[in-house]
């Protein structure tokens, strides 16, 4: 009994030589990790220079005043708590125990810091593309992925969440889980250019696009897209519009290409589907990179949909921040494995206009003639 009393006294009233603040994980482990750059980067997904730069940007927004009644958690520790939570995807209770702060405190810190990250970085690392930006993206798709006049790859990703109370089937998706949708437009270098977060999981990708600001702007011609342009070495085909590429869950539109449906396709249509899928897989690969960096995507997130939306937006802009400030790895220049390039068969709408059908037919003819690449027949 005497041993038990001593144990309970030890855990309730620690008697360490260090002050309470120094017993936190930030003041021990994190400071030790700064001596090892590789481990620091694995822990935060940012290297030391990126962490310090990010802290400089968001620090003024997340700093709290010191008063006579409290000593606030520093901006650096608040940023560390948020990044570790996004990176590990663990419950806030585990982070609270590690950092020796209250669970409620962690619950307030994460969405607040995530919002500050998004607001401080989005204007520089995910700005709304202008005409010159779209033209640069199109040139990179032509050079790296052999798809001219392509402005980006579009797809949606379901972010699993705990079922919100009294939400019915709004968040229940076709996979049998509860989720919100991350709709993204990705450029040829695996960078997010447009994201729309928060749509109900029950919606299809096409429905999510139609209800998003980006989808409405695309439909109404308010995206400042470049003018129609000739395809390389195919002047006889005339000027063709710039397009986004997507899978069969999206509708066929003048500026949005999807594969030819069905499995009994001619060689020409199979080649088109391969070339489109080769460019479209960029967004799938980007989602894979995002999930590998921020493991919260591999778990069911047990917080409100509003807070999940803030965390998702923070990880997307951090993804761009990392790639822009650290340079592009060699993996960016490698094409996806041809085995995985067949289009995913999903049920989608097909209310295509004649103009959109004509654009797809023109591209299909181009990819089988002037725009052919040597290996496409082996794959298609």
From TrEMBL:
Keywords: Hydrolase, Metal-binding, Nuclease, Nucleus. It is found in: Nucleus. InterPro entries: HARBI1-like, HARBI1_dom. Signal peptide: none annotated. Its cofactor is a divalent metal cation. Belongs to the HARBI1 family. This is DDE Tnp4 domain-containing protein. It comes from Aldrovandia affinis.
